[in-house]
Amino acid sequence: MAELKKEQWATRIGVIMAVAGSAVGLGNFLRFPGLAAKYGGGAFMIPYFISLLLIGIPICWCEWTLGRYGGQRGYNSAPGIFRVLTKSGGSIYFGVLAVIVPLVIYMYYVFIESWCLAYAWYYLTGGMPQSVGTDTTPFKQFFADFVGTGDNGLVLGGRLSPAVVFLLVVFVMNFYLIYRGLSKGIETFCKFAMPSLIFFAILVLIRVLTLGTPNPEFPDRNVSNGLGFMWNLKVPEGGSVWTLLNPIHNPEIWLQAAGQIFFSLSVGFGIVMTYASYLRAKDDVVLSGISATATNEFCEVCLGGLITVPAAFIFLGGDAITNVAGSSLGMGFLTLPAVFERMPIGHFFGFIWFFLLFLAAITSSLSMLQPVIAFLEEGFGLARRASVTFLGLLTLIGSFFVVYFSKDLEALDTMDFWIGQVGIFLLGTITVIFFGWVLGIERGFEEAHRGAHIRIPGFFRFIIKYLSPLYLISIFSLFIYQNLVVKATEEGSYVWRALYKHETQITLGFILILIVFFTMLVNLAGKRWREREASAGGGGL
Amino acid sequence: METSGWIFLLVSCSFVTILTVYCFWKVLSLPSEVDEDLHAPLDIDTRDLE
Fold first, then answer.
1. A155 has pLDDT over 60
2. Does the pLDDT value for residue A2 go beyond 90?
3. Per residue in A63-73, pLDDT tens?
């Protein structure tokens, strides 16, 4: 058992806001609407809600329950939680993934977060470029210059560029809040940031829904058609809804829907597990878990689904959306600035929009630091100042690695694919298998219902034990097959880049070094835990 | 906006909004944590969890 439990959430609503804040991010407002518009319109919601039922909600409850289970036994990090769960020292190595995934994602996510703050600042101070018609070229050029996508090291070349200044500002904000601790830092901030974010999003939503037909030259570009572009049923020519949703003929729609649920809810990051480990023994996890999930879904479907695509359609037309569908960065930083440029009092709404994206991003990035902090504190007995300093230096190196390899955002994209997609699929699968098969479904439900204010419907026993792992493994296999087998020889594919592109190879090398380094740290932490148990007379696991 | 679009929009948004409102109504109508703590066993680590 670890030495002592140091921190706890102060309020029930605080932990829900913190978990919801972790889940609500850029993908809710930028990625989801584009995907839905591209893959079947309203019909996308069928595989989307099925994925929510089969993997989103089940894994969420698994992570909450496993986290509180580990926390009550003195562990807040995934290596420790997996160790007490399996009663096996070897299982701590599964926890390496739960430390690496949030750590690496933070390294590039914080850079994107700083762009949101920078864009909000530029809208406020009039620093954004101007364009005419539907031309988005000035915004593409602005983005390329700001981030330095033309060549590696552009924003680090001899002068303090705005991108670096905003990155450092955001970095300091994140670590200041983390240093203040779970309750005074993360919880207090999320209790303010989440309602603010939703308020700002509703303001933008009202603006979009009251736009009417702003350009008389294009009478078909109105609010109704904008909503229709997102929500109308789009079946293939000569086909039906069944043709569209048949997983054999059209696996892509299922893959994209499951991926969106997975990435959007922050399940498979190991974050929820760490957050839930700070709950008390009798604190509810079932109602809290579904409340955080519902908040994320509200932001995604009701706010993201009604703002982004209709706004882009009204001012730029359908092609502008199709070209960037599924790309958060394309939609957010290339397309939407052109929308705000044409919108009445668009600079004010541009500021509101990018500030709300910044709030969504910072509540997510904060949550990515906590699993690593928890591991350093309980694995090596580090005080908060030491663990924050160590993590600060490590993530600063990683983030500047991403900033340096800025040509075509190669490092960012490589990390996002291999860790932000492959890594979280693996971790999500491990989590649901540990809950259903290691802890055991009956014991897991008993554990989940301890202190619960609502009960999990009985059919979730079958879903969590059989359907969720099967669904996850099927989707993951399909994902790997499409990306690493079918597209393997295509120039520009992830496999091709790993084999032939210098920057990709260096990034993969960097990730590998981190994995080896944290495997060694986890090994040392495991030895330390064994020695402590032996000296306490409890014997090792 | 076609009829199918309205149906998907209304069903999706209604489902998510009702779920969110229900959850927060439940959470906010619970007794405060202070009251719950008064009735809970003392939070002492007896180290008998294993």
1. yes
2. no
3. 999 999 999 99
Which of helix, strand or coil describes residue A41?
strand
**Euclidean distance between CA atoms A256 and A245, whole angstroms:** 12
- Asked if the C-beta of B2 comes within 8 angstroms of chain A's C-beta atoms, the answer is yes
Q: Residue A7 falls within a domain, yes or no?
A: no
- Chain B residues inside the 8 Å CB shell of A5: 45
Q: Which chain B residue has its CA at the smallest distance from A220's CA?
A: B1
**Signed CA dihedral, A386, A390, A396, A402: sign only:** negative
Does any domain span residue A441?
yes
- Cβ-contact A498, A417 below 8 angstroms: no
What angle separates helix A57-72 from helix A424-433, to the nearest 10 degrees?
Answer: 70
Mutate to test the interface with B, among A72, A283, A285, A302 (most CBs of B within 10 A): A302
Give me the domain span that covers residue A247: 12-535
Q: Do B20 and A295 touch (CB under 8 A)?
A: yes
Cross-strand bridge partners of residue A426: none
Domain of A231: which CATH number? 1.10.4160
Distance in angstroms (rounded) separating the CA atoms of residues A521 and A375: 9
B10 touches chain A (CB under 8 A): no
Q: What percent of chain A has pLDDT over 70?
A: 97
Q: Which of A150, A3, A162, A12 is nearest to A74 (CA)?
A: A3
Q: What is the largest CA-CA distance in chain B?
A: 63
List pLDDT tens digits, range A479-499.
Answer: 888 888 888 888 888 999 999
Q: Which of residues 23-42 of B touch A (CB under 8 A)?
A: 23-24, 26-28, 30, 33, 36, 40
* Average confidence (pLDDT) over A87-107: 92
The answer to whether the Cβ–Cβ distance between B5 and A41 falls below 8 Å is yes
CB A208 within 8 A of CB A307: yes
Residue A120 contacts by C-beta under 8 Å, 6 or more apart in sequence?
A350, A351, A354, A355, A357, A358
- The two tokens of residue A362 are 């910072």
Q: What's the gap in Å between the CA of A42 and the closest CA on chain B? A: 5
Contacts for A456 with CB less than 8 Å, ≥ 6 apart: A61, A286, A445, A448, A449
Domains: count for chain A: 1
| A123 neighbors A396 (Cβ within 8 angstroms) | no
Does the predicted interface ipTM exceed a cut of 0.85?
Answer: yes
Q: Where are the alpha helices (DSSP H) in A130-209?
A: 137-147, 162-180, 188-209
Q: Is residue A22 part of a domain?
A: yes
Contact B8 A11 (CB under 8 A): no
